[in-house]
Amino acid sequence: MTDAAQLDRDDPLSPLRGRFVGAESPLVYFDGNSLGRPLRATGERLARFVDEEWGGRLIRGWDESWMALPERIGDDLARVCLGAAAGQTVVGDSTTVLLYKMMRAAVAARPGRSEIVIDRDNFPTDRYLAAGIADELGLTVRWIEVDTAAGVTAELLADAVGPQTALVVVSHVAYRSAWLADLAELTRITHEAGALMLADLCHSAGSVPTELDAWDVDIAVGCSYKYLNGGPGAPAFVYVAERLHDELTQPIRGWIGADQPFLMGPSYAPAAGIRRFLSGTPPIVGMLAIQDMLALVEEAGIEAVRAKSVGLTEHAIALTDEVLAPLGVVVASPRSSHERGGHVTVNHPLMREVTAALWARDVVPDYRDPHGLRLGLSPLSTSYDEVDRGIAAVREELDRLV
């Protein structure tokens, strides 16, 4: 196995790591797929915003730039990460709210159909929303049973969809296993059944490239605080294919998504284009940091980011086999990089205790049942040496506990 120091020297993206706050510290951060490190430039941006835009321009800022920010950042995100043309992506609301709006809009666009298809190992919010909407509307959830070390395959989906399917909800990268779904093929199967596809991009946006337009995806929702480094609670984004803008009616009709928001007329008419999928006042402060990370990803190139991600996860798996497997640790993520996103989950009955001990010594992974320690390796802020030190710490804690 190649030495970590050599891998870091050979990594063309390694000079970018120094742009992140805390990257120079000895802390090992394996949770970049839950909350990304902030960029140094973001602190400067926030300070300028408070002094110059918020403090200097006050409410005039809405007319001068803020009102357009959800669409402008959405277009940047679409260009840099999503493989989508302009005018189809907008930033605003939380992931949960956007998923709810788009699930409701999708099933309403398929009247007479009674089923939402989703897998039992999808992220809890996705599952809870699907079940709640089914309860609200008298629909049925058709559950796909999946291996928790894998995810939704074309074969599983083909067996689940049918003439009653209104909507299919799939995570592009599974939150537990990192299974990388074949979104293009899953979308084709969904469309053959006459249904709409909603893709959750929370664990892929900014780490795994997508081609939403080319894959003919209908709707996609993703968060911005993982690989997009938007900060705690930063707003989510939604992509809606242009061909569906006039077909879908979102259920939360707020003033900002109206055709003439400042007219404040007696009745609602949706805005043209992607803006109709907004509801409330855009969270401007929460959007600021996203811009810095998108600029960095564009500088690096999303394909180079993906190559680094593959390199980090392959290194982590090789180290697990060498250092941790003798203690009974097993890899609970796909071993093929073509089937794996940007993190690796390793299982052992003591991983809950190991995770707690690691946090106390500034090694920060997260824990996912059953018995899973998840290594979230954010490509631009994680080094190969960091992976080595983290895996060594896992071994030390297992040696102590076993």
From TrEMBL:
Pathway the protein takes part in: Cofactor biosynthesis; NAD(+) biosynthesis; quinolinate from L-kynurenine: step 2/3; Amino-acid degradation; L-kynurenine degradation; L-alanine and anthranilate from L-kynurenine: step 1/1
Alphabetic keyword roster: Aminotransferase, Hydrolase, Pyridine nucleotide biosynthesis, Pyridoxal phosphate, Transferase
Keyword Metal-binding set for record: no
Cofactors required: pyridoxal 5'-phosphate
Record-level GO BP terms: anthranilate metabolic process; L-kynurenine catabolic process; L-tryptophan catabolic process to kynurenine; NAD+ biosynthetic process
EC number: 3.7.1.3
InterPro entries: Kynureninase, PyrdxlP-dep_Trfase, PyrdxlP-dep_Trfase_major, PyrdxlP-dep_Trfase_small
GO cellular component, one term: cytoplasm
Family the entry assigns: Belongs to the kynureninase family.
Function of the protein: Catalyzes the cleavage of L-kynurenine (L-Kyn) and L-3-hydroxykynurenine (L-3OHKyn) into anthranilic acid (AA) and 3-hydroxyanthranilic acid (3-OHAA), respectively.
Protein name (record): Kynureninase
Organism: Nocardioides luti
